[in-house]
Each structure stands twice: as C-alpha cells, then as structure tokens.
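Reviewers of the previous submission asked for a worked example of the structure-prediction workflow described in the proposal, so we include one complete record here. The input consisted solely of the amino acid sequence. No template or homolog information was supplied to the procedure at any stage.
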Amino acid sequence: MKKARYFVAIVIPEPIASEVCALQEFVAAHYESRAALRSPPHITLVPPFSAEDCQIDHLYKTIRSISNTMQSGVQLALDGFDVFGKRVIFVHVKPNRALTDIVDRTSRVLRHNGFAIKEERREYHPHVTIAFKDLKPMMFNQAWSYLSTIKLKHIFTVQSLALLCHRDGRWHILQTFDVGKELT
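From that input alone, the workflow returned the following structure tokens.
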C-alpha cells in the first residue's frame, strides 16, 4: 500500500498570511533559511503522520466530523515573535483553552479512528514558524535581532481546519473543512 504524510492545521487567513509569507521570504533572502516556505503559514494541530492512500476518504470524513462539531467563533491572537532554543523563530500564538481543546480533540478522534497519531509528551505551544531547520547558528542571532524588533499583532477567527499533504518537497493544502457546520 502506498502511504503519504499528512498533518492537520489552522491555516492563517489573508491578509495576515501574506504578511507572514513576506517575513519568511525576507528571512530566506537575508538569513538563508528557506524551510518555512515549504508550507503555507499555519498553526499545527496534529503533527505529521502517515496514512495509506486507501484511508484518505476515512481521513476526510473524520476531520469533517471534527470540524463540523467544533464551536465556531474561536479567536486566536498572534502576538510578536519568540524562539525555541537557537534553531526556531516563530510568531507567538497566545495559548487559550479553546485552541488546546481543538488540538486534544483532533488528536484523540484521529487516533480513535485508526490513524497513527503520536501521543504528544510536550506541552502544546502554538506558533507560526518563520525560520527553522536550515537556519544556521551564525545566522540565528542576526535573524532574531531583526525579527524581535517587529511589532506583529493580529486577531482572527478560526473558520476552518486544513489537511495538508507532503509531495514534491512541499506541504500542500489537500482539503479545508469549515468549522461549526452542525452547530448552526
């Protein structure tokens, strides 16, 4: 059976996504870190996992059922930048109970429906990646020095969940699922 890699996320809406992409492109051009450009700006809910091609319809139905029964009107706040060690620079997402509940429920329901979702041992730390993996240590301080001076604040309402698939060296949005369909 053929397998593919997937993850579930909240894709950042426009025009915020364009602002984040511009920052990622600036970092790529000036600090040689291009890895964040391989996916649309997003907040990961369920990290990458593998599923067989024959499971894709079941995966769609499972995520659709999660999104349909989600509370609509969940707001997320992007507030400045932060780092994980000296390897990752990201837009900070203010944690909130509703987001944590979405993450927990999505992982739990996917596991319950037969998908190989790892139990996360670390505390959930929502973020939108600007630079990682290929950010060289000598460029980290320069990039962080620049990004830490930028004021970035946005609030948006979660409209959908997205299923992304890895192919051709990039993550592509395979399907989006509107939230709260069964609750309206």
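The chain has a mean pLDDT of 94. We consider this example representative of the routine output the project will generate in years two and three.
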